[in-house]
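Technical note accompanying the year-one report. For the benefit of new consortium partners, we illustrate the data format agreed upon in the data management plan: each record pairs a sequence with a structure-token string. No post-processing was applied to the example shown here.
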Amino acid sequence: MVLIGIIASIFAAIGQALNCALTKDCQEKYHIYGFRMLIGAHIGMGFILLWPFIFCSYYTYFEWEHLIDLFKINLPFLFAQYFMMQSIRVSDASIVSPLLVLKIPVLAAISIVLFKDSYAIHQYLAIAAILLLSWYFSSLSGQIKIKALIFVFLASSCYVLSDIAITNYAKKFAVHPIEQVMIANCFNYIAGALFFLPCAFIKKVKVKDVYNCKYVALSWIISVTLIVMGFNLSGLVSGTIIQSLRGAFGIIIALLFFRNEMADHGARWQLKITISILMTLAVASFYL
């Protein structure tokens, strides 16, 4: 089961990187940005997950007390999204995104203090290497401001709280661990869609906009399902460490999707590819 969780986390990192590429492609094709895309994607995810909710009879697992769990998952997630938007506002997405690996020390500290976990020396060194490489990767796009760094740390901490909440929520369902994740995500994103429906009227998000976000929504569902599956089967810290590879996979996907844009920055991209390889080796060393 642990091995399946690790494999799921690897594919989740690929899915996250692909989602970023599809998001950029959607923005350029249909000019849907920011909060409007967030609304469109979440309504799309709710619509997609409505089908297994109905036809797999997942609705039979719902209890009203689950609303408390959904609140615990989504409140810190919304705060995390807010802090991320603030960090990008005072800095830049290419600088900020690699620094989300701050989730790793936050989660490791929580797991040591609350869950009495322990790690070997080489695992601490692997975490340090991942953090340093991510910092260097971020610095290639510019210097981060202290204010932005504080926002990224707050966002990382809130994402961790949301990750813990959804992992604990999934385990409440007395079914196979993989199906636990499917049920939890169904309830979570259908609730999210219901929350964003009134926002769609306020921001004038049309049905066409939701449809144009379909690949963003689908890739997000797949990656999040794999992420929570990784958390559920191999542990939160393990899954989070593997998620740090989304930047490395993002470079490969960028080479496929945006080769023409990268042609003018050959040396910079070669350096990023080198860092990505080193990042992959650092993640692999955690499991030695």
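Partners are asked to follow this layout when depositing records. DSSP finds 14 helices and no strands in the chain.
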